[in-house]
Fold this sequence. Notes:
The complex is a heterodimer.
Chain A: E1 4-5, E2 13-22, E3 25-31, H1 35-41, E4 46-49, E5 56-58, E6 70-75, E7 78-84, E8 95-97, H2 112-115, H3 124-127, H4 133-147, E9 162-174, H5 178-189, E10 194-197, H6 219-232, E11 236-239, E12 242-248, E13 252-258, E14 273-285, E15 289-291, E16 304-306, H7 307-315, E17 319-320, E18 324-329, H8 333-343, E19 347-353, E20 368-370, E21 373-379, E22 383-390, E23 393-398, E24 401-405, E25 408-410, E26 423-425, E27 430-432, E28 440-442, H9 452-469, E29 504-506, E30 511-512, H10 513-521, H11 527-534, H12 546-558, H13 562-565, H14 579-583, H15 600-605, E31 608-613, E32 616-622, H16 630-643, E33 646-649, E34 654-659, H17 663-670, E35 683-689, E36 695-705, E37 708-713, H18 718-732, E38 739-742, E39 747-753, H19 757-764, E40 779-783, E41 789-793, E42 802-808, H20 812-823, E43 829-830, H21 833-843, H22 876-879, H23 882-885, E44 890-897, E45 909-912, E46 924-932, E47 937-945, E48 954-959, E49 964-971
Helix pairs in contact in A: 5-6, 5-9, 7-8, 10-11, 10-12, 16-21, 19-20
Chain B: E1 25-29, E2 33-39, H1 44-52, E3 58-63, E4 66-71, H2 76-87, E5 91-95, E6 100-106, H3 110-114, E7 132-137, E8 140-148, E9 151-157, H4 161-171, E10 178-182
Parallel strand pairs in B: 1-10
Antiparallel strand pairs in B: 1-6, 2-4, 2-5, 3-4, 6-9, 7-8, 8-9
Amino acid sequence: MTAYRLPAGGLVDRAAALNFTFDGQVMQGFAGDTLASALLANDQVLVGRSFKYHRPRGIVTAGPSEPNALVTIGSDARTDPNTKATVAELYAGLEAKSQNRWPSLKHDIGALNGILSPFLSAGFYYKTFMWPAAFWEKVYEPIIRKAAGLGRAVLERDPETYEKCWAHCDLLIVGSGPTGLMAALVAGRAGLRVILADEGFRHGGSLLSETTPIDGAPATAFVETAIAELETFSNVTLMARTTVFGWYDDNVFGALERVQKHVAAPSSKLPVERVWRIAARRALIATGAEERPLVFGGNDRPGVMMAGALSTYTNRYGVAGGKSMAIFTSGSAGYRAAADLAAHGIDITAVIDSRADSTDVVASGTRIIRGGSVVDTKGRLRLSGVIVERSGFEENIDCDVLGMSGGFSPIIHLACQRGAKPVWSEALQAFVAPDVGAGLRLAGSAAGVYSLLACLKDGAEKSQAIIADLGLSTTSADLPAVGNELNPSFVSLWYVAGAKSKAFVDFQNDVHVKDLGLALREGFGHVEHAKRYTTNGMATDQGKLSNINAIGILSGMQGISPADVGTTTFRPFYTPVPFGALAGTSRDEHAAPKRVSPLHGWAAKNGAVFIDSGLWYRPSWFARAGEKTWRESVDREVLNVRANVGLCDVSTLGKIEVFGSDAAEFLNRLYCNPFLKLPVGKARYGLMLREDGMIYDDGTTSRLSDAHFLVTTTTALAGGVMSHMEYCAQVLWPELNVRFCSVSDQWAQMAIAGPKARLVVQALVEDDVSNVVFPFLAAKPVTLKGGLKARLFRISFSGELAYELAVPAGYGESVADAVMEAGKAHGICAYGLEALNVLRIEKGHVTHAELDGRVTPDDAGFGRMLSSQKADFIGKRLSTRFGLTAADRMQMVGLKPVDKDKDIRAGAHLLREGAKPSTLNDQGYVSSACYSPVLGQFIALAFLKSGRERYGEKVVVWDRLRGEETLAEVCNPVFVDPANSKLNA
Amino acid sequence: MVHQFQERHALEELVPLEAAASADHLAVVVRQAIVTVLAADGHERAVASVLSSDEDISVRFSAPGEWLVVSGAQTPELLHQALSALLGETAYCIDQSHGRVLLRLSGPNARAILAKGVGIDLHPSAFQIGQSANVLCAHISINLALVGGDQFEIIVMRSFAESLLHDLRQMGRAFDLSVSFSP
Lengths: 985, 183
């Protein structure tokens, strides 16, 4: 028992004891603890097993750079693997489990990997791919999967809720340490809209562990005063527990707010986590600096920790990591930590300083070994001592904790996430952010300014510069007095020579110095290659501690500067973000909006079975009592439409009204067929092509007055056609006087089709709808009996005598009810998408199943629609390309199985009779197929090479997916009423 | 056969006719008149000035030379006729009263609720009374207008209204957002 809670001190609430469990064992911490500080207070230094060698590992840091203390928090579906104990806020009832060990943390079978380590060198993973091939799937992969890894993801449905939110500000300040707080005070006082975000659960950053007094009082008092003042500003938003994880275009920042991660029972009214998108005019990055670990033999032993973290645990949490501590440092910061610890009565056995000529002292007269280095550590699951070497003399020093301090690296991730490469500063011995423009500046330690007073000053000055840059006036900032400053000087020490055991560079990925050497030897010395080859800097910590040392070692091995090695690429996210948070509310029924037809209620009460159709939710068929299969319903609907009359919801078609003196000319250029001479009161079928000559969309367009048209589009391309028209009007032909707008949602539209359709329509409409007055393709405003204004179109998709009746959407259901009532005497039925599809296949009408972007008008049998009279239209030029006029193009035909009992399915390919089933012999494909109740057999629409010359020929329908070959006869694609006598009746 | 057709609101049965209003409330307007006005080429400024001088209507900018004109008092037919007469040859007027649903979101947390779906800056200094914008609210396109201190009006396409209602309810759950029809 060595780590313990100090009798007093720290920012924890000793009156609020919180019970939690670690691997089932009940422990106690206080409000204000992290899980890591509470574990240390319970002398739980060993917290996990390493990724590859399953070496025992302990807590190293007190923050988000933690490589080792990854635990699984929660239970059942509410389980979060790979949570850093060093940032997890303690709450009552928290359940934590260690990871990557079996059967227990103390006795881990996987530790055998450590003995096998000569075979598990860097790149071993890739080498297992090489030989023998069969070994990969059967041997290596399962073993590696089982042995390696972090926590396990839960397979249960995530019960938590998440959301996303936007925020806007003049100035986003990332980090509420001394720099960020000072910057926020200055900007807040000047009236800027400020957001101050900090990943911690308490604002103050490094000030929460600071022992230097500010204005003669503890630093935490300065934090409290500053926060209290900021809270009075309506223009300042304080966001704690919020990690700014990414910098994106237009100065938008991504941030993750842990709204309820720290509560035992989350409220259902709030998300557990929230992703913010913060659009900031300016951003100030005050993220501080990271203390560097040292790479020496046995440096991964539990009990070896960052010196600064030891200070944080004692000063902020009132926890001592051990009873007797040694410090290994290459700079003055190690002395500062030693003084902090000694002030709490902790025995400092020695300060080992790699610098022979340093002059730092620890006030208490602690032993200092200048020019010394740690070459190995002792102990098994816990450090018991270190071996220190100086000039060839080795000495054992007993200690249960070793603090290490290798200098500082500014935390510049956010500034470098958009392509700017960090720049090596010889003076700072660190990579710093380059100038990335006025939108983002760095201040304080993130800019290489390390002393407290300098940070406060830098925060104030950079804030003032931003205020001036935004054109506002600034006030002068009174800087507080700061005493007893930290000396931040250090000497880079990338690698401690003489290591007697593995010297780890990356704790999380078990990368040691020799792995980097192997990478270099095997030709993977480039920093990006070395990362992939050794996995240094990967996984959840993304090398926050290890990257800089890996770069230093690679530079040292090659005798070049770290500037020449460079860094790996910085990318979002700064720390891991759950997928659930990124999805926000966009899951389940909120994953995509549902569009509801104005006739939805009518369809539902008529027994519709609905189907998703794009965003729409449309009636597929209308089941009646006694019908056992969908086909029974569909066959009945089809036969009834052919014999009597049916009503189908076609409200989902796109409808665009076009106005202007050039409206006709506009449409004439948009469609491949002519529109200039379309008479008022008439509809015409139109084909729009793409520039490449392929069909884009089809639909009917009606002329309502000389300069007023109504374009209809397919349901699928309603939005696309609208955009296409906007492009044509704004970019291609700005000279045309034309305006248009979508009215898709204004009208409920119903198709009334069948030989008895006129009887039904006439019962509802005041106007004369006789064949003479209202012939095929008539399109006019009408008045319904009772006075409702409507639009009536005599158009037909089914091939029957048919009308489409459009009424203002709110009246849709009521009018549809009236149509059903009026049609009762004539045997009317509701019919859905399936019947509609059968009816149009029987008639040889196309949909996007045929018009799939590979089909020209001639392919689909519309060759004569291409106007040769028109000077130009979209698609005209490229329609004459050789390939588009070739004689062996696939043309649309009909297919009927020779054996009437056989079926055909869409997607099957066509072969000549006797040809070997192979795509080399491909003759075409089936685009649509259905059972035709009228013909009493399956029929299909297909595209066949030179198809129109091959009516009567027999081809093989080859359905490779189902392993079927069916002989079918090629025929005219119009199966029903080729003379159009029903249409015109 | 003479028919008296019934009008059905897109959110009928999904929203209570009356409900106790929380501080933050979403009112679904039962009946409104909304007309799209498209200025004819060259008449954009003239139309804008005519529309802005009419105090009986509220005008929502939706694109260059394009507005949604909203009236709570007029019927769709009368608004359409009045605008057609007022603007004559200078603009095309299209009735959208059935194609759109009008919602009023008000309360001290209206901005916080909208920020969960809308990406534009709604701070009073950035989005002022009388301003409107076509924006996405989560996945759905809406026209958003500030009509009072913390009162917003949302115009959404009819077919999307149900999904938007679900989204707004979810966005407002932290603030106990209440929803009801409003005459």
